[in-house]
Every structure is written in structure tokens, then in C-alpha cells.
Amino acid sequence: MTALPDAAGHWGPYGGRFVPEALIAALDQLAEEHERALHDEAFLAELDDLQRNYAGRPTPLTEAKRFGAAIGARVFLKREDLAHTGSHKINNVLGQALLTKRMGKTRVIAETGAGQHGVATATAAALFGFECTVYMGEEDTRRQALNVARMQLLGAEVIPVTTGTQTLKDATNEAFRDWVANVETTHYAIGSVVGPHPFPMLVRDFQRIIGVEARGQILERIGRLPDAAIACVGGGSNAMGLFHRFITDAEVQLIGCEAGGDGIETGRHAAPLTIGSPGVLHGARSYLMQDDDGQTLDTHSISAGLDYPGVGPEHAWLRDEHRAVYRGVTDTDAMAALELLARTEGILCAIESAHAFAGAQQWAAENGPDKVIVISCSGRGDKDVDTAARWFSLL
Amino acid sequence: MTRIDELFTTTRAAGRAALVGYLPVGFPDVPTSIAAMIAMIDGGVDLVEVGVPYTDPGIDGPVIQVAVDLALRAGTRVAHVFEAVEQVSAHAPAVVMGYWNPIEKLTPKVFAQRLKDAGGSGAITPDLIPEEAGPWLDAALQHDLDPIFLVAPSSTDARLDVVGRTNRGFVYAASTMGVTGTRDTVSNRAEELVARMRQHTTLPVGVGLGVSNGAQAAEVAGYADAVIVGSAFVRALQDGGADAVRRLAEDLSEGVRRKA
Ligand SMILES: Cc1ncc(COP(=O)(O)O)c(C=O)c1O
């Protein structure tokens, strides 16, 4: 199961390449460069140096004793919020920046929802001296204004996208359009385990370090594997990063928490694995939210980073194989968990990550006391202070 | 021989390029879009690309994006596409131009059956490559529909070969690396691409992306078997209705007969 995908990027029926012919040459080049890099000691050493001495890895595994007591489980947090730029997104971007350099490209572009991937990309671009353009839905530029300013301070150009739903989906469309036109000089640093092959595999390979570290740390700390590993799922990169090393550990349940928005039953959510169906969006086949005509449906989530109608193909495969389970977590439950974590642990997490904390709370209630849970704390909440303050009527 | 084969036999015999025109179904509403497609044929378009509106048109520029967005918001459904094909194909051969997911959702089998029943001749699928097209190729060939894939300036010779061996009807060569939209000049990479493509196929090769007037059409007709025009028709329909569409078709049609 971990040997997948196949050479053309398929996990069973999922993944693949559904893109204009114009991009195939660039995808082939990227796949070849990635393959070479993974077997190149110099590349691996350079990435390792960046991870350690620039991004601050390994990130700690923090036991959340008071939060654990409140939800009735033994809880460990994988602290991606402590990585440079404040989320796991930097893991992927540093890897892709090194590949960009190897391919001789001088410009990077990215899509971003919450702005965390945009900030990480702008950061790497500054570090490597690349030109950088970030596409962001206009609605998201409003709800994540702090991150827009961060990207601009780092020297990136931020282009608000006004088409469609003005969120992550439309930012992704715009990034693809830019890439087709500028592919000779430009690398599209996609921000999650989505898109055409080799992106879902490549991003997973760079995020896998989350689970590799977490597995080693928990074994060292308590001498056994956890009962569950839980992460939020937007496109699915922090979840795939946490899950991948545990896939062959059958005793570890893998649980992904999607955005349940106003509630799955209302239709106002972003939970394709919970209630969507297989289809093709943004270059790959996976689960997605679509109508009877195959048109992509509008999504809703309080969290810009989870407000996306698709999901990475490897998650679709893990779902169908029953190796991972996915559940929708509502805005309300996520915000309650955000507050609980803040008050019990002094950690203000991103609203995306709060979905994983709420999911853990539910899972603990269903599975009885004394279970051990590792949760991906995928990002910190600074960018969300405005949204949270409004939610709790503090503004 | 399909209707598309017949068309190119005729145009080749006449020593001219074919004129292919695109409009999306449902812009600004379903009846107007169909009337505009028929006006296009009156003006001299030989083959109509009936556009399936889609929420995420990845290789379309702003003109077509806005048009399909309006079409969808006005309630256009895939069923309307088959209605359009039925009416248009009474006047000229018609292919659908559609992103893959709406076809996959209906299933390739049912899509092909309904397209055939409506009188369609094939489908251009801009985000589908031959390697991912297995079930679609089976369904299309079973119904004698032409599957039409694209090539681009970045395509390697190996890929031109795959497309050359898979396509029926004609090959769609994207003139430039970029999205749809009118441009002041048609990229000079188009001519080179057509020449490379001809080493891998005897099928006609059409060139699209960027053509908007008779002079450009004449230039492209100098080296290609078909001149494909999309955004310029959408803009004409938006600015001047079916009459403007007919006039643009007349200008382009004169162009494909003139040759630069
Ligand atoms: C902190 C944080 N967590 C999670 C996500 C969701 O992305 P993914 O599912 O790829 O991890 C985002 C996306 O913006 C994010 O900023």
C-alpha cells in the first residue's frame, strides 16, 4: 500500500494527470528531477540542513496533559505550529524550492487559502532569490489579511482572484493558468497533496517527515505506538504527512477531519471524503463535491485553509481501502476545541488545526478513556485572531 | 468516413483551410447561444465547437471564463449541450468542446451515446490526455465519434506521436503556451508545431488560441488545415449579438480562403 502510486501517479482509480497537454513536459521534468533528487545525497543533505537550521526541525512532540484530561485521553501534539512561518507548509516548500533551483527556474508561483502556504512560498523565494507570485481568492485576502501583508513584506506579489467562489479553488485555477503561460521559467509550488502527478506524491514525500518524527518521538516517550493519529484535511498535506509513516502500523487508526462547516446535512461544508463522490478536479481524480452534471459545488468553512471542494488522491485511496477514516467537523465544534486548547495548554492553534482537536475530542468520547492520540497541530493561530475574536464576540 | 473527414476532404480539394468556431452553450442563454452558433454557420463556419460550460475552465482566459460563469449561473445544464448539438448539426458538423469531469460524471459511455444520438461528430477534451482516456476512447470509437486531443508547443516528439496515433478527425494544435483569448499576433511557434505534428500524422491539423480576425485567419491558413476561433466569437456575441457573430464569421471565412 505504501509502494503506491504507480509510475503514472495512480492510487487505484485515483490520481493521474488531467491537465492540458501544454503542461505534460513540465510535469515529466518535475517527476524526473524529484526521482533523481530523492537518491542524491547532496540534495538530501541540503534539505536536511534547511529543515534543521532554517525551519527548526525536528518540531517537538508536546504532551497536552490538561487538554487530554478534558477530553479523556492521553494526547500528544506534533508541533508544526512551531516550524518557521508557523505551519507545516514550510516542509513542502523548502523541498520544492530546492527542486526549482535544480531545474534552473527563477520564478515560483503558488495558490493559497489561509495564506500559510503563500507565506511559506514567499519565504523560500526570498531565501533562494526567486521571483514570487501568489494567487489568493479575494474573500480569503479579507479573512486572512495578516498573511497578505506578510507575503508582501517578504517581497511576493499577491494577486487577489475575483472569479468563481473567490476562494482556494479559484486561486488554484489562476495559478494553473499562469503556469501554462510561463512554464519555461516558472515552477508551480502547489501547496498540498493535490494536482496532477507527480505533485501528490512529491508533496507527500516532503511532508512525510511529520509522521517519521512523530513516530520516533512517541516510541521514545511512551514505548509504544499511539492508538490514533489525527489531522485536519484541506487538500490533505499535513494529514498525509502525519499518516504516511503509520500506514503499515495496522494498530494505529488514522483519522482525517474535514470541514463540516454549518453541518454536513446543510450542504454548507467542505467535506468531499465524508459526503462527496469520485471525479476529476485540478488535474487528478479523487473525491470531490460536485453536482449531477460534474460541476464543482460551492463550499463553506470558517477555515480558509480547509475551504476546498477537492482532496488529495491518496486520501481517496486510503478511504476506499478503509485504512483511514474521515469525518466532518463543524465550525462550531472546531471553534470550541480551539478555545479549549488555548485555555488548557496555552496554545492558540490555527482554525484549520482546531478541526483535528475537535475530531480528537469526538474520537476520545467514542473510544473510551486511556487511549493515546497523536494530533497534528498543523499551524499557529496568529492569522486567525481576527476571525476568532469575532466568533467569540470580542471585537 | 465521418462528417469531419468529409469536411476536410472538401476543404483540401478546394485548396483552403476549414473554419472552426467555438461558442459555449447557455451564454447569454440557451436559445441565444444556439442561434449564434447557427449564425456562425451562415457566416461561413464549417465546423462548430459546442462548448460545455464548466465551473473550473483551467485553460480559458477571462472572456470565456466570464461567459461560462454566466451560462452556469443562468442554469445551463449538460442536457442543453445535447440540445444545441442536435440543432447545430442539422446545419454543419458539430463537436463538443468539454472539460473532462462533466463527461466522466455522466460516464463516457452515456455521454458518447447521447452525443451520437444528437448528431454530434466528436469531442475535443482540453484537459484529457490519451494516457488517461481509455474508457472514453472505447466509447467514442464504438459510436464512431472522433476523439480530438490537443498538442502544444511544449509537446515532445514522443507525445506528438501518441496524439497522432490516437486522434480521429483532426489534431488541435494550441498555437501558444497560454490560455484562450484574442491576441494581437498569432504565435510563430504555431507554424513550427504544425510542421512537427505532420511528421507524426496524416490527419488534418487545426490551429487555435489567439485568432480573432480575417488577416490572422489567412496567415494561419497558410500552414494549417483549420483555423479555430473561440474568444473572438464570444466577444462578438457579447457586444453585438448574433449579427456580429455572423459578420465575424464572414471576415474569418474570407481569410481562410485568401491565405497570407
Ligand atoms: C495551519 C494549516 N493547517 C492545515 C491546512 C490545510 O492544508 P492541508 O490539508 O494540505 O494540510 C492549512 C492550509 O492552509 C493550514 O494553513
Please give a structural write-up:
The complex is a heterodimer of chains A (395) and B (260). Chain A has two domains: 11-52 and 89-203, 3-Layer(aba) Sandwich (Rossmann fold); 56-86 and 208-391, Rossmann fold (3-Layer(aba) Sandwich), CATH 3.40.50. In chain A, a hairpin with a 2-residue loop joins strand 11 (277-281) and strand 12. Chain A has a six-stranded mixed beta sheet, sandwiched between helices. In chain A, strands 7-6-5-8 form a four-stranded parallel beta sheet, with helices on both faces. In chain A, strands 1-2 form a two-stranded antiparallel sheet. Chain A is built from 16 helices and 14 strands. Chain A has helices at 24-38, 41-53, 65-71, 89-102, 116-128, 138-143, 145-153, 168-182, 199-207, 209-222, 237-243, 272-275, 313-320, 331-345, 351-367, 385-391; strands spanning 10-11, 14-15, 61-63, 74-79, 107-112, 131-137, 157-161, 186-188, 228-232, 253-261, 277-281, 284-288, 324-330, 372-377. Chain B has eleven helices and nine strands. Helix content of chain B is 50%, strand content 14%. In chain B, helix 2 (30-42) packs parallel to helix 11. Chain B has one domain: Alpha-Beta Barrel (TIM Barrel), CATH 3.20.20.70. The radius of gyration of chain B is 16 Å and the shape is globular. By secondary structure, chain B is of the alpha/beta class. Chain A binds chain B through residues 8, 16-26, 163-164, 169, 173, 176-177, 180-184, 279-283, 285, 290, 292-296, and chain B through 54-59, 61, 65, 69, 72, 77-78, 100-106, 126-129, 131-132, 149-156, 159, 163, 174, 177-179. The site of pyridoxal-5'-phosphate has 21 residues of chain A, from helix 5, helix 11 and helix 15.
